[in-house]
Amino acid sequence: MSYAFTSRSVGYLIGSIVGGWLFDKYNGHVVLSLSCIWATLMMWVLPYVSSIYGLVIVLALLGIALGSLDTGGNVLLLNTWGKKSRPYMQALHFVFAFGAFVAPLIVQPFLQDSMTNNKSNNTNSTEKLANCSNTSDSTMPVTWAYWISAIPLAITGVGFISFVLLKACSVQDAQSQNDNAPKSNQGSLVYKVIILSLFSVFLLLYVGLEVAYGGYIFTFGRKSEPEMSDNSAAFLTSAFWGSFALARLAAVPLSRYLRPSKMLWLDMVGCLVGSAILVSQFTGLQCDVISSGNHTKLWVGTVILGISMASVFPSAINFAEYFVTVSGKTASIFLVSASFGEMLIPLAVGNTIVSVGPCSLMACALVISVLTLVTFVLILGASRYFKRHSGFAGMLYQRNQAQDQGSSTRQPDEVLQLLEQNNEDFFNGDQDRANSVQ
């Protein structure tokens, strides 16, 4: 099965790169629609795959569609709302967290039915796998979970196609958006490389920490002393992802009042505080023994960490728009970096847990939080440096945009000018007549 998960990750990387290129070259609504339809087909086919090689191929194709969806969705949202996209970006990523919460609830009843059927049948697993796709009577109950999960994808694909057919986004609108967008090609290559590299490292560290902590917190609860039960460890994992989802929902209205840089500052401080609380559990030399004898700090630190991580990714995408135009290619760079973080950092943390002990998860969380904060500070430092040099694209665009807004607010109304001119002529005429009488 490890090959299957790896193939999906590789497909996601390919989809992020190809999707970014397609989104810049063709109509974004069409690309997203085709990606949704392609993912729907793969979800329908997936339950009927009867070999590991077929599973690897189907999951890779599904990963390509999902990678294109993630890349295009972020870019299309920025192109649609521009600087006003902060709450919409937060809402988009809240839906990701909500889907991750709802999907297991949809699948669980069908898994229970499958386990019941497996216990009642005495045929071996090889015969079941070979016969599950031959007749409709032998369709596994879990197949319905795949079909139900594919329905939102199909509806979304039809919706995007409808927008295109109804000309909701005309060629003229798209052209005006491109004309009003900041021209990232005005900056130097050094500027682009530095900004994109810093943001890529930032997202790599953040996504790696999110996936690693959310994936290994159950293992920590089971291996630490005092040991947690399976239900308590599972509830601890749910507390992390639940606080993560609720914080993303709260970030939707909050982002209307706070700039992305302010939100990222709050997130970085929260990650440091949460990881410091988690590390403070261990005061002795024994890595697997919690000094206080209870898990209060573990619960508090986990919830704080989940809340603080929630709005980092969408805020980072919005913050990057202050420096460069987040086009399809730019978004693909960010998502590829995040995917590498998702694959590499959990692998490194897992090996550290095996060699050192469960407390290394908390130490890794603190180290990654510090590195993420350092990268964020470097981004702010680079922005201050390039802001002093008007020849760089992102800072120049922001400066010109502020000047344009200021000049537009100072421009007087033409009607008021006409009324004032008429009043002056009227009073001047009365004064001239009074002088002639005298």
TrEMBL record:
Keywords: Membrane, Transmembrane, Transmembrane helix
Domain of life: Eukaryota
TM ranges: 6-23, 30-46, 52-79, 91-111, 144-168, 189-213, 233-252, 264-286, 298-320, 332-354, 360-380
GO molecular function, one term: transmembrane transporter activity
Pfam families per record: MFS_1
Name of the protein this chain belongs to: Sodium-dependent glucose transporter 1
Source species of the chain: Desmophyllum pertusum
